[in-house]
Amino acid sequence: MDLKNAQLKAGHSVATWQAYRGWMLRYRQARREKRCRDLQSYLDQLSTVERVNPKTVRHALNALKFYHEKVLGIEIPEKSLTLPRVNPHKNVPVWLTHEEAVDVIGRMRGLAQLQAEMLYGTGSRITALLTLRLKDIDLGPGLVVFRHDKGGKSRTVRIPASVMPRLTAHVAAMRLQWESDRRAGRSCPVDDPSLARKLGKQTGTLAWYWLFPSATVRGLERWHATDRAISSELKRAAEEAGITKRVSPHVFRHSNATALLERGENIRSIQEHLGHTHVETTEIYTHAAGTESLISPMDMAPPKRAESSTITPFRRMA
User: How many other C-beta atoms lie within 10 A of the C-beta of residue 305?
Assistant: First the structure.
């Protein structure tokens, strides 16, 4: 079994497959160039020679352990490898205030603006948004289903009412584009070969058409759009708005969670809303939201000064 099929069977996302593939190729090249003898020496090289972040080294281990066990059939015993220590303290995520998020989105143009509204409004990951099919959008009750998100989990989220008119118009436009593609014999493929065999010609139906299809076509296949357009447009809009924070499409997910916490929403509800497995992952946003309610001592009302009293000068005794 090759790496891609093994990951699809394990329920990994396309982004995870791409990351694992990258580590597999780098590891193979290092072995060919005899820069490492085995997996342990490769991990040592990453941490000592290349000075790779300890968290990144662990990501490499996860990818290469999967490659060895699922593709090569070589079992890697637990705790058989030595890894660099990871700082147990998590970094506070970058987020935009509600005013900043609305300002930036308002400055964005075209389809990227609708994508940004969906990201901020639903708290979704960019990959989950771009891989939506029309069947995942229920305009009646205003719901969107993110299927097989990170970790293979699925969740249902309410679509913001303010986005519904533009989303409805976009879905109507995609229906017309689907009709054009159908006449040309084009379809929207799926990654999983077993699912593709099961669906057959259903991948060419309206239900399986992408919500955000790519502008380019590969033969008779049309894949979903990438994040290049929204990333570029977001960067331009943030600079125009004078935002100095490092922004990416994922910043809207952080901003969604922080805004909900600031509004007083229950953290367990936010955990379910974001699809986090552990509440500890959600709690990291409390560090960001908690600072908003604190008042610096410098901004407190200054203490009243005591009125000066007349002091009788001290006289030297004769």
Answer: 6
